[in-house]
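From the pipeline queue, job 12 of 40. The input is one protein chain; the requested action is below.

Action: predict structure.
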Amino acid sequence: MDPHQFHGKDIPHIKLDPKMTIEDLVDVFASSGFNGRQLGEAAKLYAKMIEEDATICLTVSGALTPVGFGGIIKTLIERGFVDWIVTTGANVYHEDHFASGLPVKQGSFDVDDMKLFEKEIVRIRDIYIKFNETLEAEDQIIQKMFVDDFQDKSFTTAEFCNLLGKRSKAIAKHPEKSFVTSAYEYDVPVYISTIKDSSLALNLAVHRLENKKYDLDFVREIIEQAAIVYDSKKSAILELGGGVPKNTAQQTGPLLDQILRRNDGGQDYIIQITDARPDTGGLSGATLQEGKSWGKIQDSHEGIVTVYADATIAFPILALYVLSNQKSREPKRLYKRIGEMYDKLREDYFKNPTEIK
């Protein structure tokens, strides 16, 4: 459809009804304009991803688990609406507070942080976390977890998170309150895009000072992520915020095409929820259309929607919409198949390897 002509759907004179459902509300958004329209179209695109059985990656930046959104992610995993995840170490670390029954409270953003420091209260905007009862207790959990594991062998962050989910299921006070536990149960790989930039890695320092070594195989990790996309009939991403998780998922296209010469073409569908501006040149605000020049997406005209909004507002609407109108899917259980997918990509690469000049 030529956007330079006077055509399109009529804008309705919107009426709200107390009996409206989430589907009705999304229709209201989709029939309006600005970011309301984008939000409505994003929700419908998420449903399309599910209907077409796309392999769906959820990327999560920012601090969404401290506000309780791990529960939403957990539900999407259990319904088969998320197949693999790329997130920050912070989101994994703070999610485990809920599984371990450690206190996290609503607080205030209009405070004197000198006083909070004296009271040993850590603040994430308007979320309060206790320094001793929560952070130090969580640190002990992570440190004990790695006393014996992953010594003298390489590992990926997906294996790291799988072990954390396994541990939480076995000994955590509330294992049902962790998307990492559900990811373990449903074989959803959880990759941490920059593990060294989080308390998860900081807690390995005590063991490293005892001369224990940790060999994170980041190259195997990026090949695994590309192999997931390569194996997919259709591949999709739902991006909450931007940052490194966003690029980690999107760079699978350039790895497959630019480096490995697979001619895969990138993602079929991407939804981006961001509050970052594109004109600053940062990755968080980079438009999905720009990604086409890198081979990150199949088409710069279709199958992509950007919503300029706070993810804490938009994500629950998208999630509830698909939970309300989409049937559960069988889990793809990618974690158990990673080795097989890796080997297939490797085999195909060596049929026509890149020549190093």
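Job complete. The chain has one domain: 22-351.
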